[in-house]
Every structure is written in structure tokens, then in C-alpha cells.
TrEMBL record, chains A, B:
<dbReference type="InterPro" id="IPR037522">
    <property type="entry name" value="HD_GYP_dom"/>
</dbReference>
<dbReference type="InterPro" id="IPR029016">
    <property type="entry name" value="GAF-like_dom_sf"/>
</dbReference>
<feature type="domain" description="HD-GYP">
    <location>
        <begin position="176"/>
        <end position="370"/>
    </location>
</feature>
<dbReference type="Pfam" id="PF01590">
    <property type="entry name" value="GAF"/>
</dbReference>
<dbReference type="InterPro" id="IPR003018">
    <property type="entry name" value="GAF"/>
</dbReference>
<dbReference type="Pfam" id="PF13487">
    <property type="entry name" value="HD_5"/>
</dbReference>
<protein>
    <submittedName>
        <fullName>Phosphohydrolase</fullName>
    </submittedName>
</protein>
<dbReference type="InterPro" id="IPR052020">
    <property type="entry name" value="Cyclic_di-GMP/3'3'-cGAMP_PDE"/>
</dbReference>
<dbReference type="InterPro" id="IPR003607">
    <property type="entry name" value="HD/PDEase_dom"/>
</dbReference>
């Protein structure tokens, strides 16, 4: 027989378990999934979902779901385009701190739209940003009218009060990481802004470097450092005068010295950022070193050159060869690959060069975007 | 009489309460403070503290404390410089998932250093980054030897397992926010990197704008937007050719057109960032508008110009006047203030101009740094 205290202890411990799972999850969707499953297991709900709106976008997208969801074209549209912020339910959630319970969606204006999905009873709890704005909603539903019991309401309310706060913080972390990423990429793009010839180079070379990194099974931290280093590899060119950076003809020896200085300037700039991991620095400081020791600025050779810099150098040269520049037309992929192969063991690490050529010729079986 | 289930329910509910408090706290220190107080209230601990290491810094700094802490020069040094990562306790914490309990610090090598502080019993729990590295430690202590009871150990372990996960996530959010801040500032500094005459301008003008914003009691979100806008106000100058940007003499009419283009280029760049709040955009797009409608690019007048842009314009002109430039010496603060006063109602919003002059002449009673 369960006493009230048994129930209290069980509910609280269950909540702590759900919070721990959420804290260990790699992303927001997996953080809330166990909670949605718990709602389906412990209430009459047929299904449950969490909808979230990132960074001022006026649409709430499904980030996780459990149990049975509505089906059909209207639901397909919601999964593709999200719930609009002006739908009555989301408007109602902006006005309340407590969850809303609708035993029959056909009878309440706040649930407009849900009967057409086949959803007949609905519970909805708001998730708010620390500034008070609505950023998400926990929903659970049945496909026939259902009177939500006080136990069900209690559980859902406890979820709303506890998990919602955690969800909001995880969302804040996600937003901050996305903004950091965007700011770092923008730093790289700052140069393209001036040097129109290199338009798109930063994103293309970052994409290539990540594809090669994943092909080599690098871990997530190294891939992150590779991505950040790729964004910033040429940031030191901001310090190169236009007359050298944008010169249409060949550079003379003095001008080459200035141009090569972009590597040291970039390292200095990366230092000033303060939070770049050493591997990201390595991409910036080492991307013009050569396997044969004839590169700059430090004439490192072979495996003295950090792995990420050796990876990046391949991608950087390949993108330069296959792009139009003032002084040359774009090479075809085949011509560029032949040049990489010719430079294997001279400019490039031969093992990495082989892997990169395999990747370019046969594609990667990792087709996910970064 | 308390049953075991009463105790379980109480402990779990207490943990949920502590997590909710942590989730609502504005920063990491205030997030863990209620937990430290709970440890002091519910165990024999005289005091408790949370030490944290941000972003690869090999030192753990006190971020929050409760109860009685050790006193004296050695403790002063710890509060000032932090606990070094190579001290035996921190080394021991890198090796364990479970908390460590020392009934008498004088007898265990892992607690070396603590007896000299007067700390005789100690409990320590690790906080880890998701990548597994140690980022912090919850500590509690007594000033005489004390055999930690199983209840005390149970509570401390529960804290370690639950709050530590949350603390790590809050730290991740804090790191990402700091990195975003640093990347945005670096974007602004990118220009100074090229235009050495403006060295320090970004930080000085940001500081002035925040001081004026706080003097005007702007809320935290508006201050953040003002700070980001200040970092980025001249980012569009990256698109201005060197021959115009760095020209030592007067610009001709065509060159002025190009120079004025930096405002629109900056807005375009800010759009590309994707996450800037509208008020930060307003600083970038509106900082060369004038109160009398004679500014650029949109010839806005009076309160058509967003408040943050009117605030920033004052600070930008003041810093330019009081700095050396190729074509002029730095004006004295008195000369610059006289010029601002003369431009009140012409270049500048008269109310804001008066407030800024008050602030410059009498100082702010808000002397905190941003």
C-alpha cells in the first residue's frame, strides 16, 4: 500500500531522475525526451511533445516527442513549419504561469486548431526565458475527450515548474553557443567583406575541413577546434594593407613578407580572443607550414606540424585551386586533385592527402551537416 | 516521528527546491549559494564553499561561500589567487566521481595545505565538464576533527550528484556567454588592428556608453544591446578601402561618401550575425544621425533616432575629440565638454547631453565595472 509520503517521495525522486537525465543530455531534444516519455507512461496521454522557439523566431518547432502523435497533412505541416506564435494556444500560454488543461479541445477557443489534428484533450505548460518571454511549451494530448485527473494535473504541473526552468537554462546555453559560433564565423567573414575574391571561401573551407575531420574520426572537441580555426585562419589578413592584400598582379619579395605576416597577426588576434582551445590556435598558426619544412612562419616539418593544421592546409589549397582568383581561373576538381597528389609528401602529409583524395573521389559515408 | 520515507521525501524535495533556486539565479555564484547554506544548516560543517575554474585557467576561484571560512594570510591568498590545480586535493578530485571525506586533514596527504588553514575535517565533491575534465569543487569543512556521519555523507553525495550536473551546465552557459562577448568585442577590435589611430577607441567608447546607460538607469537588456552595439559600431569600416580609411589629409566629397557608407555596411554585417537584438542594430545604424536631422544615413531627427544611438553618439564624439588623430591633437576634457554643450540640441539630444556632462563632471555613483 502506498502512503502519501511514498507518493511524494516517488514523485520527487522521479523528478530528480528526470533532471539528472536532462543535465547529462547532449542537446535540448534529448534533455526533455525522458520527461515526455514519463508523461505518457504515467498519465492517460497518448502522446507528448516539446515545442521550442530559438532566438526571436516567431515559430515553435518540435524538438522532442514521445508516444503517439497526430498524423496527416496538417500534422506534417506543423512538423515542417512549426506552431506559429499567433495560434490561440501559444497566445494563451504567454498569459499564464500555470499549465492549461483542456478536457475537450472542441469546446475551448484556446485550443483552436487541435480538433482538426484529431487531438481532443490537451495539457500545455509554458517554458519561459529568464526575461519572461515564452520560449517553449510542453504539450500532452489524447485522441478522445479526457478529463485530466488531479494526479495527472499534479504531475504535469510539477514537470512544468521544475523541468521548464531547466529547459529554459539549457536553451540559454544553446543560444549562447550558437551566438558564439556565429560571432566567430563573422570574424572570419569580416575579411571576405573586404576581399570579395574570397567570398564564400571561409564557409567552403570550413565545410571541407570538417568533412575530412569526420572522415578521420576525430573527436567532437577536435572537430570544434578545427571549425573555429577554419573560421579564423586568415583573420590576420585584416592587418595586411589593401595595396598588398588586393594587388591584382604578382607580389614582390617585400610584399610577400607582409602577406606572410598574416599568420603571426592571426595568432596574435586569436590570443586576444582568450577562449580559443590550443588546437584552434594550431590551425591559425600552422596552416602555411609544409610537410617538407619549406612553409612559414616556423618551417615546421612532418608531424611537428599539428594534425589540425595539416588537415586544414589540404582543404585551404584545394579550395584556392578550385576557385577563381584575379590571377587565375578555377581549376577543375580533377586538376586540383592531381596537384594535391603531386604535392603529397612535399606540401602535404601523404597519409592525410590520400584520405582527402579518397573523400573527394568517393564521398564520405558521413553526409550529416556539421 | 519521522519515517524513512519522510526523510526521503524531505531530502528529495529539498534537492528540487535547491535546483529551482539555482535555475532562477542570475549567475553561477548565486546559483550554488543556497546549496552551500543548506550544507551548513544540515551538517556539522562550519562552512562551505564552491570553487570554480573557468575556461582552461589552472586555478579554482571561490565563487560562493556560506558559514564560517578560515581566516588569515593563507586564506586571503586563496581568496585572491584561488586554489592551484596542482594542489593534492584538486588532483585527487580529478581521479574520483564520488565525494571525498577526510575526518582529520592532518592525517591524509590529499588534504595537504588544509591543516595550515585551520581546516581539520573536509568533504570535497567534484564538478565536471561534460568532456570529463574537473571544473569545480564543492567543499565543506570544520575547524576540529569531525567524523562525517552517513547522513552527512548522504546529503553531500546527493548534492554532488545532482547540483554538480546543474552547476556544470550553468558554467557551460556562462562560458559560452563570455566567449560570445569576447568574439563580439574582437569583431570591433578587428578594425583597430588596421587603423592604429583608433587603438583603444572601442573599449573606451563602450565603457563611456555603459556608464551613461547606467547613469540613466537603463535595464540590463538595453545595457547589453548598448555594449554589443558599441563593440560593433564601426565594423562597417572594414569595407572602406585603406586609401580612404587611412588617408592622412582631408577627404574629398567622393571619399566622404565612401566613408559614410560604413554605417550601411555595418548594418549589413550586423544582420549577418543573426542574433543581435534590435537595440544593438540601432547603435550601429543610428550612431551618425544628428538630433537636428542633419546626420546620416537616414537624416532622422529628435526622438526618431533610437535612444541607444543618441547615447552612443555623445560618447563616440567625446572620445574622438579627446583622442589624438592624424589631423588634430587631443582636446582637453574641458574643451570637449564645451563642444558637446555647444552641440546640445544640434548634434545631440539636449537632455542626454546634460546627463552626460553631469556624469563627466561629477562622476557616477555607479562605479562598478561592466
Amino acid at each position: 500500500m502506498h502512503t502519501l509520503n511514498d507518493q511524494r517521495a516517488f514523485a520527487s525522486e522521479s523528478m530528480i531522475r528526470l533532471m539528472r537525465l536532462a543535465l547529462e543530455a547532449p542537446d535540448l531534444g534529448s534533455a526533455v525526451s525522458p520527461t515526455l516519455q514519463e508523461l505518457v507512461d504515467r498519465t492517460a496521454a497518448s502522446g507528448s511533445a516539446y515545442f521550442h522557439s530559438s532566438n526571436q523566431v516567431p515559430t515553435y518547432h518540435a524538438r522532442a516527442a514521445a508516444g503517439a502523435l497526430p498524423e496527416g497533412p496538417a500534422m506534417d505541416a506543423i512538423m515542417a513549419h512549426g506552431l506559429p506564435a499567433d495560434m490561440p494556444l501559444m497566445q494563451a500560454l504567454t498569459q499564464t504561469r500555470l499549465p492549461l488543461f483542456f478536457d475537450d479541445t472542441a469546446t475551448v477557443p484556446e485550443a483552436a486548431g487541435f480538433p482538426a489534428l484529431g487531438v481532443r484533450s490537451l495539457a500545455a505548460a509554458p517554458v519561459r526565458h529568464r526575461n519572461g518571454s515564452l520560449i517553449g511549451a510542453f504539450l500532452m494530448h489524447t485522441f478522445s475527450p479526457h478529463a485530466w485527473s488531479s494526479d495527472e494535473a499534479g504531475l504535469f504541473t510539477a514537470v512544468a515548474e521544475t523541468l521548464a526552468g531547466l529547459t529554459a537554462r539549457l536553451a540559454a546555453e544553446e543560444d549562447a553557443v550558437a551566438a558564439q559560433e556565429s560571432a566567430l564565423r563573422a570574424l572570419g567573414l569580416g575579411l571576405e567583406f573586404k576581399d570579395h575574391e574570397t567570398l564564400g571561401h571561409t564557409d567552403r573551407v570550413t565545410d571541407l575541413a570538417l568533412r575530412l575531420g569526420r572522415y578521420l574520426n576525430l573527436d567532437a572537441r577536435t572537430l570544434q577546434a578545427l571549425r573555429w580555426g577554419s573560421y579564423l585562419h586568415d583573420v590576420g589578413k585584416l592587418a595586411v594593407p589593401d595595396q598588398v592584400l588586393l594587388k591584382p598582379g604578382q607580389l614582390d619579395a617585400a610584399e610577400w613578407d607582409i602577406m606572410r605576416g598574416h599568420v603571426r597577426e592571426g595568432s596574435r588576434f586569436a590570443d586576444a580572443l582568450g577562449f580559443l582551445p590550443p588546437s584552434a590556435h594550431d590551425v591559425i598558426s600552422g596552416h602555411h607550414e609544409r610537410w617538407d619544412g619549406q612553409g612559414y612562419p616556423n618551417r615546421l616539418a612532418g608531424v611537428q606540424i599539428p594534425l589540425v593544421a595539416r588537415i586544414f592546409a589540404l582543404c585551404d589549397v584545394y579550395d584556392a585551386l578550385t576557385s577563381n582568383r584575379p590571377y587565375k581561373h578555377a581549376w577543375t576538381p580533377e586538376e586540383a586533385q592531381a596537384e594535391l597528389a603531386a604535392q603529397s609528401g612535399r606540401h602535404f602529409d601523404p597519409d592525410l592527402c590520400q584520405a582527402f583524395l579518397e573523400l573527394l573521389q568517393h564521398g564520405s559515408n558521413d553526409l550529416q551537416d556539421s
